Amino acid sequence: MPEKRPSYPELTSAVDLCRPDGRLNPAAAGFARRPLIRPNLRGGPGWWGRNKRWEYWGIVTPEHVIGVTIASLDYAGLLQLYLYDRRHPHAPPIVQDALLPLARGVVLPDLAATFEAHGRHRDLSLSFAYTPHHAHLRLRSPRVRFELDAPAHGDALGVVIPWSPTRFQYTLKDVARQLRGRLQVDDESFDLRPATSFGVLDRGRGRWPYSMTWNWGAGFGRRGDHTLGLQLGGKWTAHTPGTENALLVDGRLSYIGHELTWEYQRDDPTALWRVHGPRLDATLTPFHLRRADTNALLIASRTRQAFGHWSGWALDAHDQRHDLQGLVGWAEEAANRW
Fold first, then answer.
1. Tens digits of per-residue pLDDT, 87-141?
2. Which domain of life is it from (predicted)?
């Protein structure tokens, strides 16, 4: 695949995602370092069923890997909890999912800098409360509970990817947020501390085709005196003018406007995942492979998410080379019909 030139426009002021008729606002096609895009998705019979909204947090601590999701697909809502204990690699992860018809019980606002996304179904309750500089995460379930604070630390990658005037996606990837709070798993309690506990926010608002496959990679941690964040995307951005790739150094984002090459064996739990291009060459060595498969009539998905440690290098916007050795994170392939 030919590499893209890094010329996708940078957005520096607030802009609506959609025009009044519900189509993509051409002025929103670009990337931003802050959440400047107002995702004013329109309803109506022509759009219903294609609108997708979600808030996902990936959390890594010295003891655990956690993923939590609140999502609305118009015709269904989804709540997800996934917890893997790094201390006991052969123990089964804790998994709790809830599929809610017509997204009843799920609230995912599109507008406002201060809002709360929440969802509840039976004994699973999730709440993500946001202000411009802070996020408060709360989960209640039979085996897992947490109350976490995730202050904003600097730039985040916001990008609008246009497939067509009626199919497009706004995503915000905020990597390397340092976490503080309390996690309880069964009868054990854990204090999360900013030096060793990180969270990644994946926010999505868009209007999708029914079938789509994507790659996503994230990495975070400290190298010497610097905090590094790595954000990588692929497949879903192919043949569009934008990418979902960035390096963050101490909260400062360097956009990587080239498509990257992904090499991996998705079902092999020990196989390396390599992502490379002119400004980056990164390899993930897995310590755990998450397999998730769903088939519920209209909704079907297959996800392979490898958690591990990154190695390699990346160049920032000033062509300074940064060593990625030891960053923790993940790489995934997800295929969805929704």
1. 999 999 999 999 999 999 999 998 778 999 999 999 999 999 999 999 999 999 9
2. Bacteria
pTM exceeding 0.90: yes
According to DSSP, residue 6 is labeled S
Q: Give the alpha-carbon dihedral of 185, 186, 189, 193, to 10 degrees.
A: 0
Amino acid at 68: V
Give the H/E segment covering residue 226: strand 226-234
Q: Give the rounded distance of the alpha carbon of 166 from its chain centre.
A: 23
Query: In a 10 Å sphere around its CB, with 0-12 CB exposed, 13-18 middle and 19+ buried, how is residue 90 labelled?
Result: exposed
Domains parsed from the chain with CATH numbers? 15-337 (2.40.370.10)
Contact 213, 236 (CB under 8 A): yes
Angle at 26 between CA 23 and CA 32, to 5 degrees: 115
Q: How confident is the model at residue 1 (pLDDT cuts 50, 70, 90)?
A: very low
Strands 299-315 and 280-296: antiparallel
